[in-house]
Design brief:
By secondary structure, the protein is α+β, with helices and mostly antiparallel strands. It contains four helices and eleven strands; from the N terminus they run H-E-E-E-E-H-E-E-E-E-E-H-E-E-H.
Length: 180
């Protein structure tokens, strides 16, 4: 799903298309309960930078969000609802860099190209608070069943790994290894 026209201009407003900007952004999430066509609720989340919707039409990968809080690199925090970024024509990972107490995002895809700069402590806190809210509010599935979260198949072990990682600052390779 592409962001075009007025929405693309709104998202790009105030952000350099080729250079990181000096202003600090604030990361936050908004958890949403949505009633499906059959009446079964599912959950989704919005990722906002300074109240601008970043994942407009894309799902979130909370494992990549948790890893990006500690390790720089190319990540797909925005993904397809099936969990495979390429399915949504996202081929360029978000380049996430760490420098001192800053975390910078350089988004090429989805368009428009954008840069965001976050305070590292606020970034980690926002992600942890969001994941704790998911733990507290979203019903936990039965063992062996995935979360019905934003159409993406996530497991309880993935959520627990993300929370543990953000609480301890220790990034291990257990995410995605479902023992349920």
């Amino acid at each position: 799903m592409a962001v075009t026209g007025h929405r693309a201009a709104e998202l790009a407003e105030g952000f350099s298309e080729s250079e990181p900007h000096d202003a600090m952004n604030t990361l936050r999430f908004q958890l949403e309960k949505i009633d499906g066509d059959d009446g079964t609720p599912f959950w989704d989340a919005e990722l906002l930078a300074d109240d601008l919707l970043v994942n407009d039409g894309w799902s979130l990968d909370w494992i990549d969000l948790a890893r990006s809080a500690f390790l720089p690199g190319g990540y797909f925090p925005l993904t397809c609802s099936c969990g495979v970024p390429e399915c949504a024509r996202l081929h360029q990972p978000v380049q996430i860099t760490h420098q001192g107490n800053l975390i910078d995002w350089h988004i090429i895809e989805p368009k428009p190209e954008r840069h965001f700069r976050f305070d590292k402590a606020q970034y980690r806190s926002a992600i942890l608070d969001f994941l704790r809210e998911v733990q507290r509010i979203v019903p936990r599935p039965e063992p062996g069943e995935p979360f019905g979260f934003g159409h993406v198949c996530f497991w309880v072990t993935d959520l627990d790994w993300c929370v543990k990682t953000l609480e301890t600052g220790i990034v291990d390779d257990m995410a995605g290894e479902n023992s349920e």
